Amino acid sequence: LMERKTHVKINRKEVMLAKLRKSCSCTPQKLKNFLMDFFPVLRWLPKYRCKEYIWGDVMSGLVIGIILVPQAIAYSLLAGLKPIYSLYTSFFANIIYFLMGTSRHVSVGIFSLISLMVGQVVDRELLLAGFDLNDDAPPALGDGSLQNDNLSNTTAFNLTIAGINAECGKECYAIGIATALTFMAGVYQVLMGIFRLGFVSMYLSESVLDGFATGASLTILTAQVKYLIGIKIPRSQGHGMLVITWINIFRNISQANLCDVITSAICIAVLVTAKELGDRYKHKLKFPLPTELVVIVVATLVSHYGKLNEVYASSVSGAIPTGFIPPKVPEFNLMLRVALDALPLAIVSFVFTVSLSEMFAKKYAYTIRANQEMFAVGFCNIIPSFFHSFATSAALAKTLVKTSTGCQTQISGVISAMVVLLVLLFLAPLFYSLQKCVLACIIIVSLRGALRKFQDVPARYHANKVDTLVWVVTMSASALVSTEIGLLVGIVFSMLCIIVRTQRPRTALLGQIQDTSFYEDDSEYENLSTVPKIKIFRFEAPLYYANRNYFLKSLYRLTNLDPNLEAARRKKYEKKEKQHLKKGNHRTANGLGTGETTLQLVPKQIDFQALVVDCSSISFLDTTGVNTLKEILKDYKNLNISVLLACCNPSVIDCLKRGGYFGKDFGCMQEMLFYSIHNAVMFAKDQK
Asked: Which residues form a coiled coil (predicted)?
């Protein structure tokens, strides 16, 4: 007999008070530890091995910086903002994560999915404010300047800026929405860090994340098609955006700009070829080819000297100012409008950052602190929102490039930020003539990895059909409804799948493996011997209120005996027999003799005298589960069948004790509970 240890009862009140006193105390050492934990750079920077690390960090920083510039300009299309704001975002995110991040390798900055989510909110609010979403409409005067035009695209919107009511144009209002959304997302992330709510990310399974990324990639691709072929269609908003956009594309396909179509075909061919060659010969290349930058430089030169905008009406990026716009506090009224939209943005941003950080920390044998990552990505959103930036996250593609080019620490992030700063201060105006179709090509080619997930569907289906269904549902909802709804649908559907799997789990009768003390599923394995007069039932799930009925139905079906029906039938025939005996009639209601009546009472012999329940897969019981076991104990006892429990874990045993399953004094516990199936079977044989 195994005896349980006696655990010392913990006074939770005292523990909480002790923790509170410790957290409220302030000593110089504690303050130093707090600062070093909050700014991890203070720990690792003094130990930086310059000779060993500097070359790899500089090289990876330069490469990422070169990649960042064209991607930042391109992703501004997704966010519905001017390219300058994307450059601000890339600059500030790298600096702040360098100070606060715990991962040595992840590249934090502008990310396509996050840009898409920001852009959808910006577009919705611009429409509600009465602005025209047509990209080529005459531009509004930005930054709170007064509107003097009466054009449809320059609808004035009142904002309070520095305590003064001013009218804000389209560009000003768009970045105002984006910064308010980013600020709220950062606040949510910091609050989640304070209250240690990082566990929320556990509800985003790999299938949900992959489906969400693939569905969002389809939405991104759809949004870029109009730039590829140079047609003027409004940016679709709301649910079903993907379908509506494709309908508008086919309706206006005759208006396609031949110059943009040819440019797009050439750029995609060059980019895809370069990517494929880079993937094939990456072991021979010291660093990835800067194909995007080469394409942007060549395309800009061709567009400028060929006057593609003036001659062929090809849409171009337009003026990109240099320097920094003065910081501004995000508008509080706008925060209230986008507070709900910021929540999924905060969760997705955090989950992608932490999952990538953990993946590369495991690969390179170091640890990260998920809670500090929450703070880092939160402040990567809060602080830049004052500097006209929008939401950021870690990006897998750029992180892979960083590691492949020798990145050792986040010094590489500072180098990347310096490259972006160089563009911000001096080079930005040179991209005036860059065609938007070139930027769309860069975005679409960057989606290769997410779109290739469709090739993995057969392998995924072969590995796990339920996970494949979760992926398909999440991907479909994200693409056909909206990204936020798709994420919510994916989470809810994956949880429903888990609930359904626990509601209808596998059940089995077990047979004995010959000449051993082990037992397995009789329907799955050959040459198992049935134990005479004993049924062994396995239920492969927790027993709780939602699967109670399924537990009983499965038990009755597999044992071929419903004790309630059997007991009711016996009572019915016993009652009839007594009535006939009182009348002195030796023949029963069925016209049978007394001896024959006994046979009628038991039309089929019960072929077992003991039921062993294998509880090894029952991880927990609720009140309904305990009452269900008490019910079958009582019902089978009325038929002179003993019920024995085997392989219960300690928490299940405690639930049974508290529920009174073993009686008040637990006197019969040793005859009802066994630590192995074989012990229960041997006990049942002895009691026969």
From this structure: none
CATH of domain 507-570+604-687: 3.30.750.24
pLDDT band of residue 603 (cuts 50, 70, 90) is very low
The answer on pLDDT for 647 being more than 70 is yes
- C-beta separation of 219 from 116 below 8 A: yes
Q: Could you tell me the CA-to-CA distances from 6 to 9, 389, 668 in Å, in that order?
A: 9, 58, 21
> Is residue 596 over pLDDT 80?
no
- Round to whole Å and give the CA distance between 72 and 90: 7
Q: Name the percent of the chain in helix, strand, coil, to the closest 5.
A: 65, 10, 30
- Tokens 């144009």 correspond to 169
Residue intervals of the chain classified under CATH 3.30.750.24 are 507-570+604-687
Q: Encode pLDDT of 118-134 as tens digits.
A: 999 998 999 888 887 76
* AA identity, residue 43: R
Q: Which residue has the higher pLDDT, 537 or 24?
A: 537
Q: What's the DSSP call for residue 393?
A: E
Identify the band that residue 569 occupies on the pLDDT scale cut at 50, 70 and 90. confident
Q: Cα separation of 444 and 245, whole Å?
A: 16
Burial of 548 (0-12, 13-18, 19+ CB in 10 A): middle
Three-state SS at 329: coil
Mean pLDDT score across all residues of the chain: 86
Cβ count within 10 A of residue 602: 12
Query: What SS3 state is found at 572?
Result: helix
pLDDT > 90: percent of the chain: 51
Burial label for 146, CB within 10 Å (0-12, 13-18, 19+), is exposed
Please state the three-class secondary structure of 119-181 as a single string. Answer: HHHHHHHHHHCCCCCCCCCCCCCCCCCCCCCCCHHHCCEEEEECCEEEEECHHHHHHHHHHHH
158 — pLDDT class (breaks 50, 70, 90)? low
CA gap 223, 217 in Å, rounded: 10
User: pLDDT for 472-509, tens place per residue?
Assistant: 999 999 999 888 889 899 999 999 999 999 999 999 99
pLDDT confidence of 162, banded at 50, 70, 90?
very low
- Asked if residue 261 lies in contact with residue 227, where contact means CB atoms within 8 angstroms, the answer is no
Per DSSP bridges, beta strands 507-513 and 519-521 are antiparallel
C-alpha distances in angstroms, 618 versus 113, 507, 611, 613? 40, 12, 17, 10
**Helix, strand, or coil (residue 528):** strand
Residue with tokens 């910021």: 342
CA–CA separation, 162 vs 144, rounded Å? 11
pTM: predicted TM-score of the whole model, two decimal places: 0.81
- Give 617-655 as a DSSP string: T---B-HHHHHHHHHHHHHHHTTT-EEEEES--HHHHHH
Helix ranges (H only) for 504-612 are 548-559, 563-582, 594-601
Q: pLDDT, tens digit, for every residue of 546-562?
A: 999 999 999 999 999 99
The letter for the amino acid at 318 is: G
Residue among 108, 65, 109, 112 at smallest CA distance from 88: 109
How many residues can be counted in the chain?
688
Higher-confidence residue: 289 or 105?
A: 105
Residue 140 backbone class (left: φ over 0; alpha: ψ -120 to 50; beta: rest):
beta
Q: What is the mean pLDDT of residues 19-37?
A: 83
Strands 673-674 and 642-646: parallel
CA–CA dist 476, 481 (Å, integer): 8
